[in-house]
Specification:
The complex is a heterodimer. By secondary structure, chain A is α/β, with parallel strands linked by helices. Chain A contains five helices and seven strands. Chain A has one domain: TIM Barrel (Alpha-Beta Barrel), CATH 3.20.20. In chain B, the strands form four sheets. In chain B, strands 1-2-5-4-13 form a five-stranded antiparallel β-sheet. Chain B has a five-stranded antiparallel β-sheet with strand order 3-14-15-12-11. The chains are: A alpha/beta, B alpha+beta.
């Protein structure tokens, strides 16, 4: 949305504002899965093959994919990439939140049309890595986290909802 | 009324600071209009045909006299001296300068108001019964629940990029004055919790909401809504904005299957983490006590004498007041539908007067109705004549509430970039046609609703008489619908007869109305009941001039 400049190379930044190298690679469907290599599998391929694979893999989840189908194989998943083909498509927010509700503790990465004005919402629903094309990815994270000190509702992050703060303030 | 605490203030202040920075970047040319658009739309700022329009949330239509005065100040200082009350119980200002918006939002924040989520594909302002807390037929007060939903839905991180906008309405009375069956979610508050209707809506493909769950306990309402919204967020269509509202999903899945999926999602949620505990609900409820009713002696004989001496007052009492749960009070509707003026508009002077009247006679409280009128929910009968006389001095004494000239109309082609046809001038022409008070009262309750395009912002699908503006080879043309209603017997109207140009519409309506007067069994049979009894086809012929 704002300060978007697609000429910037995508950089990987974490929710705590650290730039990290991206070792993972999305495999084309006809590529062989490497043993102990940081390979990201497409969603359908993951469903079809994870059962027979050893090791840990990344999985790419597109907006229409039902992420709950991955749950039987969750032990073999080291990373989930949630794709945002356009920032207006908000299905990925539910995807991330469901993963956290179901107990997935590995990194959830937002890829695609990931813009600085969305970062706060993404952090709140459980994303912890962002592939952004921002001029200043660390500044974008810092800005997003500075926007609100309070949230009205509980989500996947550790912000207490305002109603809980109120209860604590009154000692109820 | 609900009063902000430090947390509520902090949330609004943070959003205003963010938007101020975004506006500054836009004005400095750092952001293009394309980049700015999604940001301004998160703050209720639209770019219309001629200027920016700012839509301000009036939470569930409830406002204080101080808030109304702030609207007057905004109209006077930043707009062309008037504001427009909307069908979603909000207010919008149609002639706003971008550079002024940060200051306007700052002025609003001082009286605990904002423009958050008045646009965009998110959960919009929850609407409710304009007589909440006053009406005789109320089972439970919907306002605390609407406030609970307001807080839960504000910047909800999962539901900020829904397939389309999302509108929730609540009623707590037996008569549905909130039109819950034509909302994405309609909530009927009962003695046993909430009945939940889903998938209602107007627009291009109107649907009535389906009852998918009865008796959701209040303490579980938020988690149930969260489940309902999640199913919609995940499976609502995103390929076509005209098929993206929840009504299309519910209709494609079938209400039972949608309900089953919500149930499954609800069971999977950590409800205890989502649902505010009873202590928080009780805290919110404590802001909605009964007013501190003044024990003014009410002299029924004096009121009768005033009515006999002033027939205008008598008519106003008959049409614009509603029975109150206290015998010595009534609820007063201030009609914003004077003859020949745009429905829902009020000048800064009128807003100031309404604020003063609320202070003097109405416990400092006002409401906005989805019919685009302003309500004083609690007025002592002893004060009625004084109130009426002061309204009359400011052009606010139109005595037409619920009558044929109490129309809903969208802004239409005069303002809106989506419209195909004008709405306001047609409403003005109709109100002139039915100017005669005796004639209007003889017709009785009749709701006309006008939309300037198929997006149906003027609710034409649920007008007793609905009017839809269309574009026919470059000409503005109007289709007439009969038989719609938005109350507890909600029904969708259907196009009846052939379309016609604007100048033919008032006469066509008059012919239909006169036929109704001939056909009704007696005065107690309302227009909508006669249409129901005889069928709309019985009126089709009257729409067109005899050959």
């Amino acid at each position: 949305m704002s300060l978007l400049n697609s000429s910037h190379e995508p950089k990987l930044v974490t929710a705590d504002g650290t730039l990290i190298p991206d070792g993972w690679r999305l495999l084309a469907d006809d590529e062989t899965v490497g043993v102990d290599e940081p390979n990201v599998l497409g969603f359908d391929r993951a469903l079809a093959e994870l059962d027979g694979l050893n090791g840990k893999y990344g999985v790419r989840v597109n907006p229409a994919d039902d992420v709950r189908k991955l749950l039987p194989f969750i032990d073999k998943i080291a990373l989930i990439e949630v794709a945002f083909p356009g920032y207006r498509d908000g299905r990925g927010y539910s995807t991330a939140r469901i993963l956290r509700e179901e107990g997935f503790t590995g990194p959830i990465r937002a890829v695609g049309d990931v813009l600085r004005d969305q970062l706060l919402y993404m952090i709140r629903v459980g994303f912890d890595e962002f592939l952004v094309k921002d001029a200043d990815p660390q500044g974008a994270i810092a800005h997003a986290k500075s926007l609100f000190d309070y949230a009205y509702q509980s989500a996947a992050d550790d912000l207490k909802p305002v109603w809980q703060l109120r209860q604590e303030a009154t000692g109820a | 009324m609900y009063v902000y605490d430090q947390f509520d203030h902090a949330v609004v202040a943070a959003r205003n600071a963010e938007f101020k920075d975004q506006v500054a970047r836009r004005l400095a040319g750092e952001l293009s209009e394309d980049q700015f658009k999604p940001l301004r739309l998160m703050n209720g700022l639209y770019l219309q045909l001629h200027a920016y329009m700012l839509r301000i949330a009036v939470p569930y239509g409830v406002l204080s006299s101080a808030q109304m005065r702030t609207f007057a100040h905004i109209a006077r200082t930043y707009d062309r001296d008037f504001g427009h009350f909307t069908t979603r119980q909000n207010i919008q200002f149609n002639w706003i300068k971008l550079a002024d918006t940060p200051q306007i939002l700052e002025d609003l924040a001082k009286v605990e108001m904002h423009a958050i989520q008045t646009s965009g594909n998110c959960i919009r302002n929850t609407t409710t019964d304009q007589f909440a807390g006053a009406a005789k037929d109320e089972i439970d007060d919907p306002r605390p629940w609407a406030e609970l939903i307001r807080q839960w839905s504000t910047f909800h991180p999962e539901f900020t990029f829904l397939p389309r906008k999302f509108k929730i309405a609540i009623t707590g009375a037996t008569r549905d004055r909130a039109a819950i069956r034509v909302h994405d979610i309609g909530l009927q508050l009962t003695a046993n919790g909430f009945d939940v209707y889903v998938g209602g809506g107007m627009g291009r493909t109107p649907h009535l909401g389906h009852l998918i769950k009865s008796g959701v306990p209040g303490e579980k309402l938020l988690s149930y809504l969260e489940a309902a919204l999640r199913v919609y967020n995940r499976y609502g269509r995103r390929d076509n904005i005209y098929k993206a509202r929840i009504k299309i999903l519910v209709s494609a899945l079938g209400p039972q299957e949608y309900a089953r999926q919500v149930e499954e999602e609800w069971a999977s949620l950590d409800q205890a983490k989502i649902d505010a505990p009873y202590a928080e609900i009780a805290r919110i409820k404590s802001f909605f006590p009964e007013p501190d009713y003044t024990a003014k002696a009410f002299d029924a004989a004096a009121l009768d004498r005033a009515k006999a001496a002033d027939p205008g007052f008598a008519r106003w009492v008959r049409n614009n007041t509603l029975a109150h749960r206290r015998d010595d009070h009534v609820s007063v509707t201030i009609s914003l539908k004077p003859t020949g003026l745009p429905p829902g508009d009020a000048s800064s002077e009128q807003m100031d007067v309404m604020a003063d009247l609320a202070d003097d006679y109405g416990y400092a409280e006002l409401r906005v109705s989805h019919e685009q009128n302003v309500i004083l929910p609690h007025v002592a009968k002893a004060d009625l004549y004084d109130l009426y006389q002061r309204l009359d001095k400011t052009g606010l004494s139109s005595a037409n509430v619920g009558k044929i000239t109490d129309m809903i109309a969208c802004p239409g082609l005069d303002y809106c970039s989506l419209a195909n046809a004008r709405s306001i001038p047609l409403a003005q022409d109709i109100s002139k046609r039915f100017e005669d008070a005796g004639y209007t009262d003889k017709i009785g309750d009749l709701q006309i609703k006008i939309s300037g395009c198929i997006n149906a912002c003027g609710h034409h699908h649920v007008g007793h008489i609905g009017i839809l503006g269309v574009d026919k080879q470059g000409e503005e043309f109007y289709q007439i619908l009969l038989g719609g209603r938005a109350d507890e017997q909600a029904a969708l109207g259907a196009i009846t007869g052939k379309g016609m140009p604007a100048e033919a519409v008032p006469a066509a309506i008059e012919r239909v109305v006169n036929l109704y007067l001939e056909l009704r069994t007696d005065e107690s049979e309302r227009f909508i009941d006669t249409v129901g009894r005889l069928g709309r086809e019985a009126f089709a012929g009257a729409l067109h001039e005899p050959a």
